[in-house]
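debug: dumping io for the single-chain case to check the tokenizer round-trip. Nothing else runs in this session.
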Amino acid sequence: VWSGEEIEMTEWVRANTAPDSVSLTGSAHNHPIPALTGRQRVMGYEGWLWSHGINWTSISARKKAEIAMYKGNYTLIQNYGVDYVCIGPYERAFAQENHIKINDAVFNDTARFELIYDKEITGEGWRIYEVKTPSIPA
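debug: decoded output
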């Protein structure tokens, strides 16, 4: 199901992120980060959520929030407790399916995000950003 490079990437994720961290990823059923690392993500595959009895209105609201986050809504990223943002082929497919463009400029804002993983895997670029939490003045 996953390439050797995707497995290598998820080994990196397991070694470099906290087990209880939350990632913003595309919602594909076979996304390697949740599947191979056990890390939580903002939203899983919609069909599975619905088949497990989660209200479709709730699923739709979560999906709208995920779309807004990929468009650059930093407040929602913080409100959902996102620690990492993944931008790879699954996220580009998610964006295409939802007729949006991922706002790369937002994630290149070094005051809010730090690029911690940037590799090409089987011809596709994968970037993982760590979300920086603004410091609270003393």
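debug: round-trip ok. The beta strands are 22-24, 40-41, 84-87, 113-121, 124-131.
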